């Protein structure tokens, strides 16, 4: 009999999460490269023999495919990318003559990748803790929402009215100014 999410105690959930994370780390460590990601990009570092130069490598970066390795040998990695990339904004370079560094610019910059190549082990994207992004990285609509939330949160902490409450108070003042004959002294506004 298998247990469902509801039947698992917080301690058991924590243990299962710890086991899943350890398994995920083990699977990722077995890959022939290391990778990191931000919402808009993926960066891979691939160890290559010391003394390797760019001309010794064959790297193919396509919209949905990646191949990288030493010329004349089996590729170190080859396969279908899990998501599409912007080929024109993706690059590769050799670092310290022993690391191939591949930068992939995501086509959809609002999603986390579960893996780089579709046949490689996946990570749990729900457990990703993104680094703090700058407001300037956000589109105007999202930025406006975030700024409003930050303002409202700051106002609440100071015991002051939120932006919505300020709007209501402003509308009430306008209405009172237009109708001086009405008495609002005992009115409760919510």
UniProtKB/TrEMBL annotation:
GO terms for biological process: protein folding. InterPro entries: CS_dom, HSP20-like_chaperone, NudC_fam. It comes from the Eukaryota. Residues 1-29 are annotated as: Disordered. The keyword Cytoplasm applies. Required for nuclear movement. May interact between microtubules and nuclei and/or may be involved in the generation of force used to move nuclei during interphase. This is Nuclear movement protein nudC. It comes from Agrocybe pediades.
């Amino acid at each position: 009999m298998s247990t469902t999410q509801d039947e698992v105690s917080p301690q058991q959930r924590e243990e299962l999460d710890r086991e899943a994370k350890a398994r995920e780390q083990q699977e990722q460590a077995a890959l022939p490269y290391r990778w990191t990601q931000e919402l808009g990009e993926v960066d891979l570092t691939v160890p290559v023999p010391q003394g390797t130069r760019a001309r010794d490598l064959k790297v193919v970066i396509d919209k949905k495919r990646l191949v990288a390795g030493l010329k004349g040998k089996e590729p170190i990695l080859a396969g279908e990318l899990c998501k599409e990339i912007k080929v024109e904004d993706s690059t590769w370079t050799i670092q310290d003559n022993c690391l191939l560094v591949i930068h992939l610019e995501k086509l959809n910059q609002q999603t986390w990748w579960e893996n780089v190549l579709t046949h490689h082990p996946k990570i749990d994207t729900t457990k990703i803790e993104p680094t703090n992004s700058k407001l300037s990285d956000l589109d105007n609509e999202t930025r406006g929402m975030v700024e409003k939330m930050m303002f409202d949160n700051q106002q609440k902490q100071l015991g002051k009215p939120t932006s919505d409450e300020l709007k209501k108070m402003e509308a009430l003042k306008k209405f009172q100014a237009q109708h001086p004959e009405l008495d609002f002294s005992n009115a409760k506004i919510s």
